Structures are given as structure tokens and as C-alpha cells.
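pasting for the record
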Amino acid sequence: MPDENPFQTLIELKTGVISPPVDHVIRRLSDIKTIFRDRDAAEQALTGEDPTVYEVYNVPVPEETGQLQHCTSVIHPGAVGDEYHMTKGHYHARRATAEIYLCLRGEGILLMETEDGRTAHLRMSPGTMSYIPPFWAHRTVNTGNAPLVFVGVYPGNAGHDYGSVARIGFRQRVIKGPDGPQVVAEEGAVRR
């Protein structure tokens, strides 16, 4: 008989804040400056204040088989050079696990790739539900002028592998193009 009892949380749809209080992770530019391709622009942006690029509100659920981890992510609008604000991106530690993102507010692009070189991207807007299959790394980019707010749900035992993305980079980037956001190939990403 499980020890857990049913519970619910309240998501403030505009801000992504979850109540009651949960694990709140804040990623500032100084924490993730190396993920942007224009390192000089990142350093220059840090000469003033250290802006918050994104936040995650994690609901405390056991990280075990049978459980469902869930959270909200809020990516603040902005850019470093010509590249929009984004998350670090990750694989799941257990590669054979999927994830779903439900966009609540804002506009963005979900970048995905596999270790064998396949890439994909999906546009995010309020009401879109994006399916991230097993074995796909994922990174989310805010391409709008308002916060990009979405809910993520994934298996309790999935875990996160940020290290692989940090080592090899992502094969795609989203930059400001003449006609809006543009997905481009990243020349510097390490190929296996």
C-alpha cells in the first residue's frame, strides 16, 4: 500500500507559479551563459544586472517508477545577441522515457534531437501539447515578448542528464531572423 495520498496543486496560468510552495529553481544568465553562441554578448549582458532567463516550479513527487513528475517552466522574454532566451536542455537519464509539454502562455519553439543526429522542432503557443518521445533531448526557447509558460509531465524515474548536452551542444539554435524566429543548424555541435 503506497504511503502517498492524493493531492492537488494550483497553477497560476499567467505566471506559472504553483501553490502550495514547491521547489523553485531559478536560472540566471550567469548560470547558463555558456549555452549561448555569442559568449561576448553574454558577458556584456552581465555587466549590469544578472537577469533571470528561466524558472522551474517542481512539485515534490518521489523520483520512482509509477510516479509522475510534473512542473511548470517559465522562460522570460529576451535575447543574448541574436539568440532568444532558452533552457539548458537535457536528455532523460533513463533515455527510454517520454515527456509532454502543455503550453499555457506565450510563444516559443521546442528543439529536439537524438544522439544519432535526428533533429526536430515544434512551435509552442497557448493550448499546444507537445510530445517528446523517448531518446530525444529537448530544449525550449521563448520567441515572444511575454513569458513562455508551460507544464511538463514525465515518468517519476526519468531523471535528467544535462551533462551530455553541455558537452556536445545542441544541433539547432533559434535566432532572430529578418522575418521572425529562425531555426538554424549549429556548426559547433559535436557529432558522434
